[in-house]
Amino acid sequence: MLVTERCVKCLYGRQEAVSKDEDYLSEIRQILNNRGEMDSAPYMVYLFNQVYEKKYGKKYSFEKEKKECNDFVLSMQEKLRKELRRADDPLERALCFARIGNYMDYGALKEVDTDAFLKLLSDASWSSRDHEVYQSFLEECGRAEHFLLIADNCGEIVLDKLLLEILKERFPKLEITVMVRGGKVLNDVTAEDAEYVGLHETADIITNGKPLSGTVYHLLSDEAKEVFERADVILSKGQGNFESLSRQGHHVFYMFLCKCDLFTERFQVPRFTGLFLEEGILSIHVKVDECFDVCGNDVTVNLVNFHGTAESEFFTGRILAGGVDTQIYKKEEPGRLSARYMLEGTDSTGESCRIFIENNGVNEDGIIVTNPRIITDSKVLSWMMSSEMEGRVLSGEDGLVIKLYQKKRRQQI
């Protein structure tokens, strides 16, 4: 998530509240003025903290607040665990609870109000958009072997632990890992905090290698990069992880509460609204216009004309007339699909552009996996033409959803 001028003003204002020393503030301004296009607010704060500690020594550790948050939610743990067991869908309910846990954030809030937290928890609910993402989450977990949860705050981590317990029961073959912070920063979870709440009994624990309230890929430790690339499903908690991981083409599920103006305005929701998002390169919502078929010699061919819309962090637009999917089914063989269509809309810089997609794949027992090829006239999206991608075709509320992702790099480290 880009650092806007509004973010810069907020980030600098917070540092002015920390120190009025002109030498210190001059270094802060230099960091902000020299930020890269893909730098995020959590990364900026990480750099600020290095300047602060060099000049003034270690920052306040939030040890007291972290223990209070963990102890408060631990005191509710058995009651919440029983409530989850009674739910019609324990995993869905556990995800709701884990999302509310993101309220416990001393980076976004001046104080954590336990009454406000309990009210949010009692009102926890699932929207129709959440349900669509949840169905995709279930499908991905159903075929996965390795699951990574990128944690955020203390207190919240107890609810994450309950979520992972339910997840493991639903998908017993999953190997679960939790990534925590590599050092003390705000009330974010460290390995010591995770062990304090008993998370090590449910999942393997690794750190991101840095005292950083986010997940900046190039700063991850070698171990963390290897786990990130191996993960078949990634669930990222909190605003900071979203800010530092999004817009890079990773296939990630994000879960957080919108706690600052940047998030509430971007997503057009009230403060403390919970979001459950799935991000890849493109999400294409397809509606079928006409279907034609022919059968002969144990072969069935379907020709499907369609229209629809596309959206992502990189592009927003529509499918132009002429989109067609050719489906060939031979007896006792997986179905073969080949779709060709063109999108028209705007890229992430607001420039008008078109994207041609050739999407070839197979349908095996209802699971459709594709290998997309892209051609575009957008300069900022030109990387898509050389990126190795994979696709999934899923059922949406009123049609099909085609999701395109960047393939895992599977680095050898």
Explain how this protein is built:
The protein has 413 residues and is an alpha+beta fold. It folds into 3 domains: 52 residues; 217 residues, Uncharacterised protein PF01937, DUF89, domain 3 (Rossmann fold, 3-Layer(aba) Sandwich); 125 residues, Porin (Beta Barrel), CATH 2.40.160. The chain contains 13 helices and 15 strands. Strand 10 and strand 11 form a beta hairpin. The chain is globular and about 80 Å long. The model has no long low-confidence stretch (mean pLDDT 92).
CATH homologous superfamily assignment of the largest domain? Uncharacterised protein PF01937, DUF89, domain 3
Largest sheet features: 9 strands, antiparallel
Helix/strand order, N-terminal first: HHHHHHHHEHEHEHEHEHEEEEEEEEEE
> Oligomerization state of this entry?
single chain
Q: Report the sheet-strand fraction.
A: 25-35%
Query: Mean pLDDT, rounded to whole units?
Result: 92
CATH first level of the largest domain: which class? Answer: Alpha Beta
> Number of helical runs?
13
* Rg, nearest Å: 23 Å
Question: Secondary-structure blueprint of this entry?
Answer:
Elements: H1 5-18, H2 22-33, H3 41-56, H4 63-74, H5 77-86, H6 90-100, H7 114-122, H8 128-143, E1 146-150, H9 156-170, E2 175-180, H10 191-196, E3 204-207, H11 222-230, E4 233-237, H12 239-245, E5 252-257, H13 261-267, E6 274-279, E7 282-296, E8 299-311, E9 315-319, E10 323-330, E11 335-347, E12 352-364, E13 367-376, E14 389-395, E15 400-406
Parallel strand pairs: 1-2, 1-4, 2-3, 4-5
Antiparallel strand pairs: 5-6, 7-8, 7-15, 8-9, 8-10, 9-11, 10-11, 11-12, 12-13, 13-14, 14-15
Helix pairs in contact: 1-2, 1-3, 2-3, 4-9, 5-9, 6-9
